[in-house]
Amino acid sequence: MNGSNEVAGLAALAICESLLLALNDANILPEKEIVGVLQDAAAAHENALAGEGSAEVHAAVARLINKIIDGGNSVRRT
Question: What does 7-39 look like in DSSP terms, one character per residue?
Fold first, then answer.
């Protein structure tokens, strides 16, 4: 990934995490649903077909999403 793509990816990640927090804070999506969205995103990368891009990239994306779930970054845990 080149520098511009890396910056764009980090910006997108920060925006998405902020949106998930806002959805939870506004009682639009409960924690369970937010975690479900993240699990679905991770599963999409875990199950990506070989022809859909680099297997290593998909595996790294899935690992990152699972770390976000484990760390609670996108949900204010009570």
Answer: HHHHHHHHHHHHHHHHHHHTTSS-HHHHHHHHH
Q: Write a three-state SS string for 31-53.
A: HHHHHHHHHHHHHHHHCCCCCCC
Domain span including residue 39 = 3-71
> pLDDT of 5-52, one tens digit each?
889 999 999 999 999 999 999 999 999 999 999 999 999 999 987 666
Is residue 76, in this structure, part of any structural domain at all? no
78 within domain boundaries: no
Q: Is the pTM of this model over 0.90?
A: no
Is residue 34 one of the residues assigned to a domain? yes
